[in-house]
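Hey team,

Filing this mostly as a record. A colleague (T.K.) asked me to run one chain through the structure pipeline before their review meeting, and I want the input and output archived in the tracker in case anyone asks later how it was produced. No errors, nothing strange. Just documentation.

Input sequence:
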Amino acid sequence: MPHFAGLIGLICDFSFFDGVREDSFRVECGLPIGANCAVQGVIAKHWPGAADLDLRHSQTLTKSALLLAVGRLEASVFLPASFSEMQAGGGVYAVAPEKAKAAARSLRSLFSFVDGYNHILADASTSGGMRQTVQGNEVFIGPPSGSTLAAASVVLRSSTGGLEMGVDFEPVTMGWGAGQQAFAAGKVDVFVRPMPAGLPLIKGLSQYRNLRLVGLSDEDIARMRAAGVFQFPGFAIGEIPGGTYPEIANANETVKALAYSLVQTVNVAMSEQDAYEITLAFWGNIPAEKAGNPALATLDPANPFPSLNVPRHPGAARYYRE
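Output structure:
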């Protein structure tokens, strides 16, 4: 597993945070088009301590959590399912389980949020549910490491009734930009990408191909439920409303899709006052920020804890008590 080499090295070199940080507020997030990165901009705009924001997007979040645990970051977003793996010393963290468990004990949460939906695109000439769409085809599932790859693998196997990668369909892994170009050029049959609903990526792809957004059928969802997918923290079924993508063939169809949540995570050594102020600044300004940024549409002040499984920071807990 050469693509996990950096992650393995970081686990094995694990050392604890001393509570001292750089002058900049160092944060890592995933897709730059998602709420997960937009959230960091809101914090930087409204909390003076993050005014000098050093934001690094398109990161491998399983690695970002370790960087946060050892004090090389001030904040990061993290998948709830990956945190469960870290706590158990399993998944990608199985190479050094005790150190991974120690890292998990160094993480605390401020809030969580629905970041978006798993979008599955195929040529408009195709039809059927997930099994018919995927079987025998080349399917782009994201970069060759990280939490997105693991989630795509679980969803594709379960929703198709057990189709295996490399046997029943050919998984294609590469960077997001390269995968998008390959799909636009017709070199890949199916394109899987988690992202908020309504962003312009699909409009861009539709300039090159006539597309349909593949929804999860009731049968697909039943298979996923039977496979235990919804027992993983952070996953649920949501809907992408008809009219969201007027340029696709099934533009008026409301599509069921896998919705995923992320956790805004900090180090346990962050002061209670800082954690309190960040949480206050964020939720106090999110209604106005949502009005001008579609990437923040899934943020719900009435539900600040969807799929939250990372222990809450005492400073954040104080905000919610008040």
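Quick notes for T.K.: The first strand starts at residue 25 and ends at 28. The chain has twelve helices and ten strands.
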